Amino acid sequence: MKIWILNHYATDMYFDGGGRHHGFAKYLIRNGDEVNIFCSNYGHNKGEDIEIKKGISCEKVGADNIPYIFVKTKPYEGNGISRILNMILYWKNVKKVGKQKIKNGKKPDIILASSVHPLTLVAGIYLGKKYNIPCICEVRDIWPLTLVEFGKIKRNGLLHNFLLKLELYTYKNAKKVIFTMEGGKQYIKDMKWEKYVPLHKVEYINNGVDLEVFRNNKENKIYFDRDLESNKFKIVYTGSIGQANQLHLLIKVAEQCKEEGMQDILFLIFGEGSQREELERVAKDKKLDNIIFKGKVGKEYIPYILSRSTVNLIFIAKSDLYKYGMSLNKSFEYLASGQPIMLNADFGYNYLTRDNCAFVNENIFQAVKTVYNLSKLDYTEYCENCIKTSEKFSFYELTKKLRKIMKEAIEN
Fold first, then answer.
1. Which residues does the UniProt record annotate as the domain Glycosyl transferase family (predicted)?
2. pTM, whole model, 2 decimals?
3. Angle at the Cα of 218 (from 217 to 224), degrees rounded to 5?
């Protein structure tokens, strides 16, 4: 198959050599398919950009021999008007670039257009209709529901209603709709859209992990750290340290562990963010030597770090949005580490608890005590469950599912 993947923000994947569509492309190419990823020439909040000296696009080959086509847009900061203009310019120019390639005899067999924002889906549908190419729309973030739930726009306002119409338009006109959250069909039912979007064309492929890369990094990218190598009960968190990540809750938990005499518990926080300095100061003022902020580390060291923990920690915000499921990127690396997971809140279609890989409790201290008091046999069972579940979410397996959906879309 000749496959085009439209993902505005895949620029970061080119630089990182990883991510959802890089993973798909890697294994599609190994299967003999031809893949091109169309993305913006400006990275998303990372400052890593591709200069386009002539025209509105340029091509480069990334890791794993994946061809990236960079579409000219504009730089932006934050989520204001400059970002909206960046979205519009991608929508406008990716259509032009696609048209030119088709005129040059490079018509694909299928287009996979992926959100976050809906204009990418609209562009994919436009090219599909104009040149008789089946277009699959992939929904990684349900707009406008996500924007409403997190207070970015008002429910039933002009923008909300416009985005709802745009959302329905994309679902109606896509050959298939792939949700990254398992409850996509239920969402269509709740919206009463079955008449326009038959459930047989709604599919589900969650995010995942490239186990080949993960296992290689785990064995070869060793992160030397005295605390990480200790025999203590190590609770590890990796990721951002901002207001939304709620790591302030760990200060209280660390205090409770001290009070309960659980002296061998150690919290290790790997990451950076706006809240780090404040939380570190509070921990120091309270003389808590059982919570240590390690700072940011290269992503290639994360597999080794996670595999040296006793249990890995995920914080999520509580929201009705998550009743349809989640696609937590870090959760799949956590699973691949073979160590149990603690969650501070539940979500719908929870693949972590369903396979007995995680402990959910709003009271993190109670979750800590539960894992702390597990028998060796029960703990080992949770570890084995994590490994088995990670294999279901490996990009090798997920790509086979994607390929089957694509073939059905082309044949039908």
1. 225-391
2. 0.93
3. 100
